[in-house]
Specification:
Blueprint (H helix, E strand, L loop, with lengths): L35 H13 L13 E12 L11 H5 L6 E16 L2 E14 L7 E14 L3 E13 L16 E14 L4 E14 L9 E13 L5 E12 L15 E15 L2 E14 L7 E12 L5 E12 L9 E13 L4 E14 L12 E16 L2 E14 L6 E13 L1
Antiparallel strand pairs: 1-2, 1-18, 2-3, 3-4, 4-5, 5-6, 6-7, 7-8, 8-9, 9-10, 10-11, 11-12, 12-13, 13-14, 14-15, 15-16, 16-17, 17-18
Length: 437
């Protein structure tokens, strides 16, 4: 699904160095997660709280919460249907059930015209069978939304996450080593200035650092510095038309000078886009960005890229109960969990949401996309690679009181590929409880 609950933690670790023997995993474990006491407390609170809503902290400016999510995944390591799981992961079954306990807090405080928001969620994931995937991660963020006078505004922010890397984008489609963790930190500062009531200029500077936990993959640690600048014309109705430019510089700090790594190399990327937002009626709005991306690599020029890209989103709300978002895109995009991979992503998606009642809602996600690995020299032995991904999901949410949220979800994922063993199918079912104080 497009939006993840606070209890969700990535469950498909990336593979290790190619050519290593298949990893062997423990078959089972008698005891549950170390955080079992917290799980029990969550369930007890879920039973008690519907009778009375939790007291607000600091007039709802601060919330403490805890979530418990139970997930069943019938193909944890995203193994091809053509492979024998016994020889691949040392187990006759590809399925597992795991539990994620997620305590945390969030805050949203306004001081005059300034607003401070953020929070931290800790994720403790424990597997019944594949205990090698047990992992303690976190997701933290903080932002100062500032205003100066009537013309200046912006945000100073920082995010910090620690999670397991996804196996879905493994180049070989086979687990070949120890699970890898990814620590990602990003700081940014943006500002907007109203030149006149109709004209606005805005810009942003940011820095992203991503570190791999697996020693063999630290050569893929990356630092990305970026800058954006845009000028827009905005009508009284909120419609706007503008032009934006972006510069991105990616470097690998753990590679010796002059060394070539076939998985990628330092790059500089430029883009210029037309930007538009238009309200077609009282119920629908379109947001679009289209332009050209030029990406030059420092060592491997055969990976250079210079083509058109676009991203269009259409939001439609015909009634107070139904909302629909449709997305079409063609973008140069890093893969989900690793900034050091380079693909051309083309796809469409549909996200309808239905408010069944005041307390019950249903959300659907339908996605189809292709990923072209752009002239990646590491694929020289298998030729070029293109993947096609199909995703379908349903999530039901029940919120009997403000402090308690119950969710049940189902997600289907399928991938086909031009390379051997790059395909997989997976069915994932989740049940979660979130309690806020």
């Amino acid at each position: 699904m497009r939006d993840r609950s606070p209890g969700t933690c990535p469950s498909h670790p990336a593979s290790g160095a190619a050519g290593q023997p298949p990893a062997q995993f423990p078959a089972s474990r008698a005891s549950g997660p170390a955080s079992g006491w917290l799980r029990a407390a969550t369930i007890c609170a879920a039973i008690i709280l519907p009778a009375t809503d939790a007291a607000a902290l600091w007039d709802d400016k601060v919330e403490l919460f805890v979530a418990e999510t139970v997930t069943y995944d019938d193909n944890v390591f995203r193994i091809s249907g053509s492979l024998d799981p016994v020889t691949t992961i040392g187990s006759s079954s590809k399925a597992d059930t795991y539990y994620t306990t997620s305590p945390g807090f969030k805050f949203d405080v306004a001081l005059g015209r300034q607003r401070f928001a953020g929070g931290v969620t800790w994720n403790f994931a424990r597997y019944e069978r594949f205990t090698v995937l047990d992992f303690d991660g976190h997701d933290g963020r903080a932002a100062w939304q500032w205003k100066v006078g009537n013309d200046w505004s912006g945000t100073l922010g920082y995010t910090d996450t620690l999670a397991l890397a996804s196996l879905e984008n493994s180049r070989a489609g086979i687990l070949t080593g120890t699970p890898n963790s990814l620590a990602t930190r990003r700081g940014f500062f943006n500002a907007a200035y109203a030149i006149t009531p109709r004209w606005r200029v805005q810009g942003e500077a940011g820095r992203l650092e991503q570190d791999n936990g697996l020693a063999a993959l630290t050569v893929n640690d990356i630092v990305i510095n970026s800058g954006d600048l845009a000028v827009s014309y905005i009508t009284p109705a909120g419609n706007q038309l503008g032009v934006g430019a972006r510069l991105e510089d990616g470097r690998y700090p753990n590679r010796p000078g002059g060394a070539v790594n076939l998985a990628g190399d330092a790059y500089r990327q430029y883009s210029v886009d037309l930007i538009a937002e238009y309200t077609m009626s009282g119920h629908s709005r379109v947001r679009a960005r289209a332009g050209r991306v030029t990406r030059n690599h420092e060592q491997l020029s055969q990976r250079d890229f210079d083509e058109g890209t676009f991203n269009v989103t259409y939001d439609w709300r015909p009634t107070g109960m139904l909302t629909l978002s449709a997305v079409a895109r063609r973008e140069v995009s890093p893969l989900d969990d690793t900034q050091s991979s380079f693909v051309l992503l083309k796809g469409v998606a549909l996200y309808p949401t239905l408010q069944l009642s005041e307390k019950v809602s249903a959300a659907v996600a339908l996605e189809y996309s292709s990923r072209d690995y752009l002239n990646d020299p590491s694929l020289v032995l298998v030729g070029s690679r293109t993947d096609w991904l199909r995703v379908g999901g349903l999530k039901l949410t029940y919120r009997p009181v403000r402090s308690l949220t119950l969710e049940i979800g189902y997600l289907y994922q399928s991938r086909s590929s031009t390379i051997a063993f790059g395909d997989f199918e997976a069915n994932i079912a989740t049940l979660s409880v979130r309690i806020g104080f």
